[in-house]
Design brief:
8-stranded parallel β-barrel, binds 3-hydroxypyruvic acid, binds magnesium ion, TIM Barrel, 48% helix, globular, alpha/beta, 12 helices, single chain
Amino acid sequence: MHKLKEVLAGGQTAYGIFSALKDPAVIEILGYVGYDYVVIDLEHTALDLQMMEHMIRAAQIANISSIVRTPQDDYGTILRAVESGADAVMIPHLVSKQQGEKIVGMAKYQPIGHRGIDGSTRVARYGGVLITEHMKQENERVLVIGMIEDVEAVENIDEIITVQGLDLLFIGPSDLAGSFGLPGQVTHPKVRQAIQVVMDKSNKAGIKVGIPAFRPSELKEVIGMGASFVTTPAVDASHLTQSLKAHLESVKNM
Ligand code: 3PY
Ligand code: MG
């Protein structure tokens, strides 16, 4: 069982981070410092699929679960992420039950979905495992995570949480705030209230929810709201920028 699944199954909070830095060494560092999972981001970066595969390989070496956030709900990226060995796929802008069924169908083999069958992929050990065994293992291993980050998704949450095979949800506060016409105001009461509704309904349905904690001060709050997995700091690239900026300022002021 990979680390994210194990931590969540144990009822503990899983700690992760979005990686925008496009480098397998960063993934190894994140694993070695003790993160449970990393989100390898294909939505907001120019990362190519071959480097994505090296980053997944690095995650396996450093015992950290790999989630690939795809640019959209497309078959080509979802399939190639799981075939490269991603432990989970995270699909942005999930807004309906129908779309949820579509993404589960792409990421999971039958009888849950209709993932394309090929036994020669990296995750199938390049043809080294029995295809039926491989399909069974993959349906146990791969997690499908839908992102809730639109007002429409909040409105449709009762239906979305009924999708069979949708394992987890992850809230995107930045886009959600934007969707409310409140860009940048992730802690606005309207946004916070919508997040609370999504968390309450999802948790009641047995679907655990993740969310970024943009500031360390938000961490306790989002866990109190019902989050089971968090990204903190939210993104490796922003963290590097801020810590280097603070360092440079402090040495210049010595
Ligand atoms: C968002 O906040 O919109 C995200 O996608 C995750 O940070
Ligand atoms: Mg987003």
